Amino acid sequence: MAAPALSEVTSTVRQGWRFGRGLRALIKDPVPAAGAAPSFERDVRDRAARFLDSLDRNVWSSAPSPFRALLEHSGHDRTSVRRLVSDRGLESILEQLRDQGVYVSYEEYLGKVPLRRGRLELHLDPTSFHNRTVMADYLGSTGGTRSGGTPVAMSFEEKRSAAPRTHLRDAAYGQHPDQPVAVWFPCLPSAAGLGAILSGVTAGRPPERWFSQIPTTMEGIPASKRITNTMLPAFGRLSGMPLPRAEHTPSSDPAPVLAWCIEALSRAGSARLSTYPSSAVRLARLAEAEGESLDGLLVTVLGEPATMGRRRAIERSGARTAAGYAFMQAGGAGTTCPHETRERYHVYEDKLAVVPRRRRRPDGVEVDAFLWTTMSGTARGVFINVENDDYGSIERDSEPCSCLFGQLGVRTRVGDVRGISKVVAAGVTVAGEVFERLVDEVLPAAFGGSPLEYQFAELDREDLGTLVLRIDPSIGTVEEAAVLSIVRDELSRQEVGRLADAVWAPADSVRVLREPPTAAPSGKTLPYEPLGVARGPLPR
Question: What is the pTM of this model?
Answer without folding.
Answer: 0.81
